[in-house]
Write a structure and sequence with these properties.
The chain has helices spanning about 15-25, 45-50, 65-75, 85-95, 95-110, 115-125, 130-140, 145-155, 160-180, 190-200, 205-225, 230-240, 250-265, 310-320; strands at about 5-10, 35, 80, 115, 275, 295-300, 305-310. It contains 14 helices and 7 strands. It is mainly α.
């Protein structure tokens, strides 16, 4: 062959001394030599090496492409698989075709030529969708008994709590997407589950869902480092039960303005009916320090001036309240 190809896999595992020895070769490579350096941690590769290479970043494969490839393989192998199983495997593979094929091999070895979603759930550890709905419904209903039951179900599955938190985050994500009009195509679910999400999302406030998914993401991160993950998971779930509904700033300001107007209207009946219709009055004519009364002038539509005597202390107290 005119070229010799040298492939160094996991190149970030090389020591600094090895990188220094490789650097000279990369600076003045032989005409017949081609080097391919592969890594999943590019930040561990020295910049002096990266600057002397052409860099190609391979992104994760989309779930749609993985599903189509799995269907081709299943058809060639003459194996019966339902769509839910293929979707679950594609989602679990997290953008890696190799992982998807490995999972499919495990399921085939377990279930044989006919694969159902129950078989996939057993092999790759999936929590039934109803458990996620029970979890979210317990939060919105403030049903502590239901939440305790769900936590017990999650505990008995034996699945890593990080995977459970990740599944809950994906569940809330589906609720958020379902709340957007004409977004059903973004839900990679069967028609029955899509209808379930579209129906359930009507009970939710979008701001509350965003807060919940933020807490769940933080939970997933901390579960990997905390010494008592189960207790922390349960306490976070109880924290979500205590969460109040979100209120927008505009609504809050609107309510505040309404309450202020209401307070002002409550003062009006206390205005004494001591009114002067003297058309010649042009200014506040009298303030009595003894009774602490103040005269307020108010022009009506005809331009006449009305003088209203108000008890100043009562107004001040009413306003403060």
């Amino acid at each position: 062959a005119p070229y010799k190809i040298f492939i160094i896999d996991e190149v970030h595992m090389l020591t600094n001394q090895a990188f220094n020895a490789l650097l000279r070769t990369l600076e003045e490579p032989p005409l017949h030599g081609k080097f391919i350096l592969a890594t999943t941690d590019i930040h561990k590769v020295p910049s002096t090496i990266i600057s002397r290479c052409q860099r190609f970043d391979f992104n994760r494969i989309t779930e749609a492409i993985i599903r189509e490839k799995l269907k081709v393989i299943i058809k060639d192998e003459k194996i019966s698989v339902d769509d839910d199983s293929i979707n679950a495997i594609a989602r679990k593979s997290d953008g890696s075709m190799r992982d998807a094929l490995s999972l499919m091999d495990q399921v085939i070895a377990y279930a044989g030529d006919s694969i159902k979603i129950e078989d996939v759930s057993t092999i790759i550890g999936l929590i039934p969708l109803d458990v996620y709905f029970d979890y979210s419904n317990a939060i919105i209903e403030k049903n502590y008994s239901k939440m305790i039951s769900v936590l017990e179900t999650i505990k008995t599955t034996g699945l890593p709590l990080e995977d459970v938190a990740s599944g809950l985050s994906n569940h809330i994500r589906n609720l958020i997407i379902a709340s957007v009009e004409n977004s059903e195509n973004l839900l990679e679910l069967n028609d029955e589950h899509k209808k379930q999400y579209l129906s359930n999302t009507q009970n939710w406030n979008g701001k509350d869902l965003l807060r919940i998914v933020s807490i769940l993401n933080d939970l997933e991160y901390k579960l990997k480092k905390i010494s008592q993950p189960l207790i922390y998971f349960e306490m976070t779930s109880m924290k979500l039960m205590e969460m109040d509904s979100s209120v927008s700033i505009s609504d809050l300001l609107s309510n505040t303005s309404s309450n202020t107007s209401k307070k002002k209207s409550d003062i009006n009946p206390k205005i004494k009916n001591e009114v002067s219709t003297d058309d010649n009055a042009s200014n506040v004519s009298n303030v009595s320090s003894k009774n602490k009364n103040i005269i307020i002038e108010d022009k009506d539509k005809e331009g006449s001036i009305k003088e209203k005597k108000i008890e100043f202390d009562k107004i001040k107290n009413e306003w403060n309240n």
